[in-house]
Request: fold
Amino acid sequence: MRIRNERLAHATAFFDAVVGSFSRYLCALIAGAALSGSSLAAEPYPSRPIRLVVHTTPGAASDMTARTAADEMSKLLGQPFIVDNRGGAGGIIGADLVAKATPDGYTLLAGASSVMVMIPAISKRKLPFDPDTDLVPIGRVTHSPGFVLAVNEKSPYRSIKDLIAAAKAQPGKIKYGSAGMGTNPHMLGELMSDLGGVTMIHVPYRGPVPALLDLLGGATDLQFDSVITVAPHIASGRLRGLMITDRERYPGLPAIATAAEVGYPDLFLKGWTAMYAPRGIPKPVLEKLRATFRDISMTKQFQERLLKQDLAPGYLGGDELLAEQRKSREFWRKLAAARGIEL
Reply:
């Protein structure tokens, strides 16, 4: 009995020692985590590289805009920007990735008007993110000079008049490519069809570059695209520009008439690219990003870099941008309803 009691006493002592050691370890762990959290909270932003998600393929206007802005912002913030192209689904994939990212300022989005305005305007189902609440606008960086309606060099269409006449004579035969459902080129094709009273076949691609390659190869008949994308091919003679969706002719392509000059004044659209952060980003971090974004947008160096790439500077603050994208969305929502377009 005495031996049994001694064994029980030894076991109890051992258990108490283990529990005590574990308790001390746990307390130290909690204290360390708290200290680490305090240390992290005290770290100045940014203290590591920033990931900039671009919701389209490399080489597109939004991609080039994002890379130029990222390069200039990294100089002021002292940290590199890592550009991450996540194209697909008209931009939804990349935008949703950022909307669901940790809101610490280390994952941002370079978003074009197509995914912030067009996609929500034509979507009948709820998107995986809300462009007005899940993504906080930092600011708009560029406002494009309009989209060029281009055809292949071998195309029989030498004017909008030729194109509309052919579409009326053979409804559903003419095919136009775009960077995807709900993108600016897609909706411009629908607007032109609506204004011209014709029916054309929309061929969506996974980004503007694949669409352009098929236009150059003759698989599609026409395409609306940014100046930066089509200008080199127009200069080389591989593409022919029929018009530009702007109020004024573009200086770099002076021979291409505006939509108004060819009889379609309502065929107007200037795309844009802006930067966004996930909802919940700390206010001080958002303010720092907005201030930095505004500062680089106002520099002559940055503006000249954009112009050399056929990108038009067009800064707009975050709050003003949010109001503009909501207003613009209503116009395209009405067109989508009238045309029976839905995503």
About this structure: Residues 160 and 263 are 9 Å apart (CA to CA). The longest strand covers residues 135-143. Residues 1-41 have pLDDT under 50 and may be disordered. The radius of gyration is 27 Å.
